[in-house]
Amino acid sequence: MGKRHGEQLNSGEKKSSVPRSVRARRGQQSASIYFLLWTIFSVFALVVVLLFGFSQQALLKRTYKDEAAREIADKGVKIRQAVLVGPPEAFGKNNYNGYIRFLSTTYSVNVVILDGEGNLLFPIDPNLDRDDPDYKDHYDYSEEIALLLEGLEENKTDEVVYEGEDEYVYGAEIRFLGDTEMYLYVGKSLELMHSAMTHMSVRTVLLAIFVLILTFALSSAVAGWVVAPITEMTKKARQLAQGDFSVDFHGNDYGTEMVQLADSLNFARDELSKTDRMQKDLIANVSHDFKTPLTMIKGYASMIMEISGNNPEKRNKHAQIIVDEADRLASLVSDVLDLSKISAGITQLDMKKIDVSAYLQVILERFAYLKDTQDYVFVTDIDEGLLAEADESKIGQALYNLIGNAVNYTGEDKTVYVSLKKESEEAFRFSVRDTGSGIKSEELADIWDRYYRSSQAHKRPVQGTGLGLSIVKTVLQCHGFYFGVESEVGKGSTFYVVFPIAKNS
Length: 505
Ligand code: ADP
Hints:
Blueprint: E1 3-5, H1 7-10, H2 22-26, H3 33-85, H4 96-107, E2 110-114, E3 120-122, H5 133-139, H6 142-155, E4 159-163, E5 167-176, E6 180-189, H7 191-241, H8 256-306, H9 312-344, E7 351-355, H10 356-365, H11 368-374, E8 377-382, E9 387-391, H12 392-409, E10 415-422, E11 427-434, H13 468-479, E12 482-488, E13 492-500
Parallel strand pairs: 8-10
Antiparallel strand pairs: 1-12, 2-3, 2-6, 4-5, 5-6, 7-9, 10-11, 11-13, 12-13
The protein binds adenosine-5'-diphosphate.
């Protein structure tokens, strides 16, 4: 079975449309990975530490206040009971001053008895002068009693627990000593809680600083780990850019993405080295192919001058060879130029309706000399009047190249089969078959590449540059025509092009 290679080619390979601009190469000044990682890590860590610190503080505050409220309520009730019972014998019957001080110390709270105006009734220090402005505050509980009375009023009970100025308060209305109305005020300062909060804030700040130092170390380590393969690959990519195709990219120790990047770079290296090799081959081929006709032109010109100048028949023959070789040279030059123009997208197709049948005959005429001089046989089967929309000269070049190749590569019988047959109402097919050694399946995809030339030496009645099939491919892809090759090693190859029939034809 012959190998086919057609469909893939017709789908068209996209030209790389993104030129590497200077802007892209220079890149914008961007922050280093070190800095980016450090910023991200630090912000994240700080947010976590601060959130943790503040939530702990809020929780502690709440717990402390709840605890303080419960404690003050508990102690308040006991103190109230004790005050109502009155001081025991040991204090002296009416020694409320001593007794209340005793209760303050025992319960670690501030216990005072006030009147309705907020004047301190117990405990009184007999050594302090009530009117002394320095001690006025000591006796004056007017602000406290206002809050207490408000609390009692609101709760409509005779005892109340509330948060006062920097303290938790138990307040109760009590009657003793001749049923006088007095108020018991028991306060527990929140100072301890405030100092605990301050401590906690300091600890949070210290923790934040510690975390910042830690994230700096951690981000440096991570960035170092991430950056190392990138730096290495950048270095190798520079070597590659300078034409060193021996570089090998690998990212094995750095995770899947790095391995993929390394694989892509290795692939790019292989492709570059292939193109580089082909370009070098092209220069060698082109210079060789330029040299051959030039040598012949020079040789025959000398012959005309020295030998055949006086013999019109010989002179004309030699002059004809010079003209042919000059034509060949010119077509070689135009091949190279055309391909570079088509590939660069400079040439526009000049589409018009052409009679492919007639045009194919004209192209075949160009090979007629091979029948007479080198015994080539052209077996043709061409349907008349097949029209297609195409760029005449470009399509002519493609068909000429395909027939030229068949001539070059056909077998001992020197036979080339050319056919143009209508396939359906929509399409007709051009095909050219040779009886040569065929093309190996592994070479089938490569033959369409620019500069690709089979390594095997071959006698070449038609000059080639290794650009022929590349021109065919580019031209047919620009037209959007279906084309391809079927080949069997030892038997020959058939190249074909399917033309859509021009409408209204
Ligand atoms: P050139 O013929 O100048 O070398 P082409 O681009 O026309 O360049 O062809 C590329 C290669 O494809 C050839 O070198 C040859 O190896 C292979 N090739 C082309 N046509 C044929 C054919 N009809 N039979 C066998 N091999 C062919």
